[in-house]
Amino acid sequence: MSKEPFLTETNSYYSIGKWTKENPELVAGITTNRGGISEGPFQSFNMGLHVGDKEASVTHNRKLLASALDMPLDSFVAAEQTHGKNISIVIPEDRGKGAETYHNSIKDSDGFVTGERNLLLTMCYADCVPLYFLDRMTGTIGLAHAGWKGTVLEIGPKMVGAFIGKGSSLSSIEVVIGPSICKDCYIVDDYVIDKVKKTLEDENNLPYNLKEEGQYHLDLKKLNHQLLVQSGLHSDQIHTSSFCSSCHDEFFSYRRDGEETGRMMSFIGWKEK
Q: Superkingdom of the source (predicted)?
């Protein structure tokens, strides 16, 4: 697969290379579906504890990732993702929540923000959009899960608002829109498009086009970019991956593979000094 300016390939994940090169104590990226021990439809590097895979296999895969990142598994923080707009401010006491068992994940949350070290913020995906946030001045980091529901609920702008609430300025926030389903692969109906229309201020640059009556191709990455610009960011503060989780078989894809499939894990965290 071709390289991108903001993504660097390793054995089993892509890192946000520009960020991590400029900040050696930062880890940030997304896993692929390769390099683990899960079997069947979850083959092989499944990171989702909630999809029907063996818990022991997922835990083993997460330990492999922890080793590759040089971040202990008990520093991972995971969420019970609900395709919503709720954002949790992650504190040291949250360390390890959802790392090895799903039931103790942080409840009902699709966004994490923290200014703490030795916490690895994580979310799981199989076509939805990972949003990574970094404040270059304060070091505050964030991660969000944006399917179409979370996107039209404006979780991206709400993440920006959470950063402002923690003392960030708009000019110091940088965002990466990670690998996720592309416009050609993502077809939605009138119900979804009606929700999309209500979020957009610019009606001349729509992130969707008509496929046939009642069916549309929707560019979720572009929609998230537009909403982040509406929140006050400049386009040059937002960097978008061209990788499609459905087109490229190194990623899990709900649309391509069906309901029974694994999950990639996005992650961002500061190591201890």
A: Bacteria
Judge contact between 30 and 130, C-beta under 8 A. Answer: yes
Residues 6+ apart with CB under 8 A from 130: 30, 123, 143, 144, 145, 146, 177, 178, 179, 180, 266
Domain count, the chain: 1
Identify the H or E element spanning 104. Answer: none
Gap between the Cα atoms of 124 and 263, Å rounded: 6
In the numeric block, which tokens belong to residue 69? Answer: 């990142």
pLDDT digits (tens, 9 = 90+) for 169-195: 999 999 999 999 999 999 999 999 999
Q: Structural domain of residue 82, as residue ranges?
A: 8-181+238-270
Sequence-distant (6+) residues with CB within 8 A of 236 are none
Per the domain annotation, does 43 fall within a domain? yes
Give the CATH number for residue 80.
3.60.140.10
Residues 136-170 pLDDT 10s: 999 999 999 999 999 999 999 999 999 999 999 99
* DSSP run (H or E) holding 42: none
- Does 195 reside within a domain? no
Count CB neighbours of 32 within 10 A.
23
Please name which of 233, 222, 225 lies closest in space to residue 183, comparing C-alpha atoms.
222
d(CA 253, CA 41): 11
Distances (CA, A) of 123 to 196, 208, 213: 23, 26, 35
The residue ranges of DSSP E strands in the chain, in sequence order, are: 8-9, 13-15, 26-31, 76-77, 87-89, 111-114, 119-125, 129-135, 141-146, 173-177, 187-189, 208-212, 215-218, 238-240, 264-270
**Residue 217 and residue 43: Cα distance in Å, rounded?**
29
